[in-house]
Design brief:
Number of helices: 2
Order of helices and strands: HEEEHEEEEE
Number of strands: 8
Structural class: alpha+beta
Oligomer: single chain
Length: 169
Amino acid sequence: MLRSRFRLLTGALVPIALVLSACGGGSTDAGAGGSSSNPTSTGSTGNSNDAVATAEASGVGTVLVNADGFTLYYLKTDAHREVTCTGDCAKNWPPDLVTAVPDAAGLSGQLGTITNPAGGMQLTYDGWPLYTYVGDSAPGQANGEGAGGVWFAMTPKGPGGDDSDAGKY
C-alpha cells in the first residue's frame, strides 16, 4: 500500500516539475544548456520580421501577434526590462527578436526592445519581454495561454487584458 501511494505521488509530481522547469523558472544564465535565441521547431521560431499587429486567438480574444501571425506571450514572472526565460526555457518559448522597434500604430501600449542574454534585441510591450510558443503551429493559436500558470498571451491593453495598471510603470 505504501508503494502504491509512492508511485501515485511520484507520478503526479514529476510531470508538474517538468512543466514548471520548462515554462516558468527559466535560468538567467545565458550559457545554460547552450541556449539558442532561435531554436528549431515545428511552431513559431520567435523571429517577427519587425512587425506587430493584433488578431483574434481562439479561446483568448484579441492578442498581439508577430508578422507571421503567431501569438506573442509574456512571462508573468519576468521583471520589467529583464529577460528570465533563457536556456531550456527559451527552447519552448523563443524570444521575439527584432532588428528595429516596429510601428505601434493602433496599440495602446509602447513597443520597445531589450537585449536578450543569448543575443539579439527582444521585443517588449510596456516593458514586458515578448515570446512566442513552439506549441503554436499556426497563426491564430494561443496554445501557451495559461501554461504553468505563468505564461499568457499579450493583449493590446497589456498584461491581464484589462484597464488596470498591470504591466505599467
